[in-house]
Amino acid sequence: MESAFQSGIASASLQVVLEKIANFAVRETSLILGVDDELRRLQRTLQRIRAILDNVENNHLSLINDSSNEAWKMWLVDLEKLSYCADDLLDEISLDISRVHADNSDDANNSNLVRSNLLSSFKLSVPHEICKIRKELEHISTEMDSLFLSKLSAVGSYKMHTPLNNNFCATSSLVDEEFVVGREKDKEDIIQMLLMTESNRGNVSVIPLVGMGGIGKTTLAQVVYNDDRILKNFEYRIWISVSINFDLIRISKSVVESLTGKKCKLSDLDPIQSKLQNLLFGRKFLLVLDDYWTEKYGDWDALCSPLRVGRQGSKVIVTTRSTIVSSILGTIPAYSVQSLNDEVCWELVKQRAFSSKDEREKMNLEEIGRKIATKCKGLPLAAKSLGGILRFRSDEEGWNAVLNSKMWELPQDQSEIFSALILSYHFLPTRLRKCFAYCSIFPPNHEFEMEELVLLWVGEGFIQPRGEMRLEDIGNDFFSELIWRSFFQFSHVNLHNQSIYKMHELIHCMAQLISANTCFRLEEDIQHWPPAFNNARHLSLSHESVQSVGPKAFTWFRQLRTLIMSTNDTSVSQVPYELFLKLQFLRVLNLSHMGIDELPSSIDRLKHLRYLNLSENHIQKLPEPTSNLLALQTLKLKSCFEFFELPTNMKNLTNLRHLDLDVKHQLNYMPSGFGNLVNLQTLSAFIVGRARGCGIIELKNMRFLRGSLCITNLENVLRPMEAKEANLFKKPYLKKLQLEWNCLGDKIDEQEVLAGLQPHENLKELSISGYNGVMFPSWISNPVYKLTNIHLHSCLSCSILPSLGQLPLLKFLCIEDMAGLVHVDHHFCGFGSIKGFPSLESLIFQDMPNMTTWRGLNGDDLPCLRELTMSNCSRLTSLPSLHNLNFLHNLNIGSCPRLQALPEEGLPESLQLLIIVDSAIIKERCRADVGEDWHKINRIPKIEIDYVEIPIVVHGV
């Protein structure tokens, strides 16, 4: 089994190299004598080995428990090592080509000059190094091929002892319900779905049961299938074990045989399905298709074609690990089978572990057993497997050995769980295997955020170009596929509104088993790392004090591609100069939250580096050699509050795709020529400077910018025309834009600047701060905009609000600290076919010192408003009529001391919460029973005045 896992990951490593070779520009490699020919030979060798590995994985050829298994393991280790070496060499060639083109950018059309510079910059040994790797691979290929062919001739079939054939996973409908626990609610839910008749979904409904391997889908289907209510309500019940090799004729024949109780002698599909259609016509049936894997629409269409003649109310239950499958065949949303709690897992462990033990033994072992049950992480198959292992261990020592063992260290011939998990891995496409295995460097229960993990995958080179698609979008698809195949599970949404996912601990164990040769996560004493780590490529290091990690410790890890360090010691201060000299093959380096205040200049030795995370450090600037990292794609400097300077030659980093830094006004400007970074997608902040090459016009050609962008120091825009030349209206992927002025400038100039900063209509969120113009440009209220959130802050000279009511999708609006605004009138709600804020849910007026009145609301304005806040409006004397706001839920009035009364017409019946703070006149008028406005509010369920809740009983009848 371990060989099957490892052959899969070795095959994936070869695939990465093959894709890189395929993506090499023939024109460029052909300029270098001998390189192109050697690459093509290497490509053919890799393809031949891939074919062997795929056959081994698919057929497994009885390698388990065979003396040749050790030879296979050695070959697979060597193959992966050579794959990495080939990848490193290809990367060096690619980087050298890029460097030559960058140095000769002015002479790009002079092929002779480029050829000359390529030849002079390349080592003469490059073709020889490719040849050397190819010959080593060919030697392994010959040996593997020899063993493969000898076994093939010995057994005469590709299918000997394969663990992936149908018999391996066959199931029946029989179940002993006495041993099924923890699924009572699931059983009832599914039975109710089965008994429900859905007139609008055709005669036959399909209910997918989805969950990871070993979660108990089959068991749940069995207990439902055998329930008395199902027996009474369905004329026919059929149970079919589909398993991994989808065979339409076999499945159709099995259904016929189940219905007739006789062997079906037909052999062609058409007569079989015709007979099946006749048997089911007008009958109400329940069909269970257990362990369904195929993701081909055609397979499902062909299978279900004869089923549609069943009587209304017929049902099909499909158990599957794949959300992709459920979306293909489900007529109703899939039923997600969840993990069990620890108590239920303990019950399942006891069923097998204690079946032959006396009561005294049980009492002595229960405490240990309960701890072992937590290792199952809610997976019933794991509980049963562990119970079976414990059954043959009668003392505390034996049980403690199981408790302290990793799941993959337990005897695999006694554990059913890895037999189940290997199927999930077997069906995982090659393109996803390294991405999955890479996750083993993170600890169990790690919280995965898709965007961050995808950036790591891209940095490692696991994701290769596909047409015009962004690498990040391909990576997002990869992550989604792993979710759909139950390798990740949704956990929660974090404070930044990002979805967080976790990996079940046993899936994580499988990742560790697969990647055992190259991925390591270390927490133990650094001085005792074994020599086996010479093959390590990906390392996550967690240690109490990283001060003890001297450069010598990394002698073992010269081939490292990933180094992720975490520590409780945030006083590291400096990174040793020698460290980067030793780790020259790094692609990913994460030194976040380490207390670092300085990086050594040796960082430019990391010429392969794609991803650098220095967030949450005391670092003040990057060393100038950082600008030599031409391969760098991602640079993170979040929460580096002392950071004040980017490298002068930042413009050289033309492969940079993501620059993530904070806007805390530490930086005074962006370095000259920043506009060269035309591949930037993430640019959280752009600080406008006055010097040549530092102005806002540097944004002109950054057409791939997406997500959130803050443009600050806009007072430094010297000519209003430059704002338009920044081409914000040509950046369709930007979703959030913050425009900031930090000191007052000329009012007319600022109006022209803001007019020129018109964004693309796809923008969702807009924030304008410190703007000194008297009025806003017309684009801000143009109905073509898809804006959902607007925040106008400290626009001190503005005396007229734009007609924001014309924005059809606007949901949140905050207007804050606008001293020039005195009156709000009907102009605010807008004119034309769209007006009155048709989608607005939350409206805030805050810190408005001179606002006195708000008038001009019509009865059909603000139809969706749920929350209205008027805060620190010291001169406000009246509110507009709010009684037609039929969805208003919360009304907050704070520090409005001159507000004379609540609206004459009263407040809407929908209001659930009224808060009044530091508003003396209104407070007096809202006194319980005696205040003049009491009758307007006494129906509101919750009222707070000056932080004191008015008791509900006072509200009156």
UniProtKB/TrEMBL annotation:
PROSITE patterns: LRR. Residues 184-358 form the NB-ARC domain. GO terms for molecular function: ADP binding; ATP binding. Residues 441-510 form the Disease resistance protein winged helix domain. It comes from the Eukaryota. InterPro entries: Apaf_helical (IPR042197), Leu-rich_rpt (IPR001611), LRR_dom_sf (IPR032675), LRR_R13L1-DRL21 (IPR056789), NB-ARC (IPR002182), P-loop_NTPase (IPR027417), Rx_N (IPR041118), WH-like_DNA-bd_sf (IPR036388). Residues 697-818 form the R13L1/DRL21-like LRR repeat region domain. Residues 14-101 form the Disease resistance N-terminal domain. SUPFAM superfamilies: L domain-like, P-loop containing nucleoside triphosphate hydrolases. This is Disease resistance protein RGA2-like. It comes from Coffea arabica. The lineage of its organism: Eukaryota, Viridiplantae, Streptophyta, Embryophyta, Tracheophyta.
